[in-house]
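Human:
Care to share another protein and its fold?

Assistant:
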Amino acid sequence: MTDSTLNPAGAPIAGRESPHAGQAAAARLRARRRSERRFKAYGLGAVLLAIVMLVVLIGTLAGQGLGAFTQTQIAVEVNLDPARLDPQGTRDQKTLADANYTGLLTDIVRDNFGATQRRDILKALGLFSRDARFELRDFVLANPDLIGTTQTVWLTASGDLDMLDKGWIDRDLPETQRPIDDRVLGWYDALVAKDAISRDFNTRFFTGADSRSPELAGIWGATVGSALTLFVCFILSFPIGVTTAIYLEEFAPKNRWTDLIEVNINNLAAVPSIVFGLLGLAVFIGFFGMPRSAPVVGGFTLALMTLPTIIIATRAALKAVPPSIRQAAQGLGASPVQVVFHHVLPLAMPGILTGTIIGMAQALGETAPLLMIGMVAFIADVPGGFTTPSTVLPVQIFLWADSPERAFVEKTAAAILVLLGFLIIMNAIAVLLRRRFERRW
């Protein structure tokens, strides 16, 4: 081939240079390659920026929230006075449970902190959590033989003292700008000097329900509420979504009505989640009168939101099964229903489960639709069923983020870390299922 162009017969035309050769063509080639390198650099930069932002997000949450997994404890000397706890000396459990533990706690602050005036006693009682008297009761009920002796008991510190011990309260600020005054600081320093301050793993954060006191607040109630809500959502959305997708993909006639349904399903997948909350509020609570703030209503509402995702994922999984599978089954005499349920559906199930798990993970992190149906209420108990009032993890985070106490900032970040952990686990299960059962043709 020469540098001349070709005539219609394929022969080069003498005296005319080919557009694919020469310096101009080489310059265009170099420009295309530079453009490709720039595009790759932009893509790599976007990925690196996303990784950096993710690291910053996780790092910020970890820096603020890891402290919530520990709780400050105070060691105090307790005189287990028999006259106050068990005057009859019967060691009866009911008598011990009904004893005056508030008075016992007042004796503790008198003996350990030298508080004699009413104002000082109330201030010293503020060092401990509101459940300190119940911790004393549990200690006595667990050790009735120790009545009449003086024991060292570890009690949960208040939220402000916990924040001071973790360094979130600046001691150098003027007293009027600190949540704790100089008197409390003096008591805290004395406790530190006596090694009476300890920080232990905060089991209450994982086993307790919500509370107005940050040192007592936990995520177990919201976790149970999320589990019940997701169970209702799965029971409703999975069978309805899968059967709808099977009908539309395998049996429905191709006409304007099925096209209209498909377009609406695709559009519903992009509708803001709060719209589904309004729909749930109007239909389930307003029309059917279902209980407000309950997992059953939350599950119904989230099922509406998850259905389009499951339908789209199921249809994609059914399409991925090669037509030869259907043709082979039909060749052996299988009916259309047998072809679908005996051959196509089992092969598509890994993709269906992957899409379903991703839809459930999305439902787990949703907040807006649940706010509309009243699951934003303060619930201090662990839900006992599908119709009892409850909240869910995202709403719990929303509530804590709105609380003014500094300790709730720590709780909020820790709860977000737990929620991210659940989402990562669910997505990891989806990836494992796909890799374990996926078939390539």
Notes: The mean pLDDT is 89. The chain is about 65% helix and 5% strand. The first helix runs from residue 22 to 65. The longest strand covers residues 70-79.
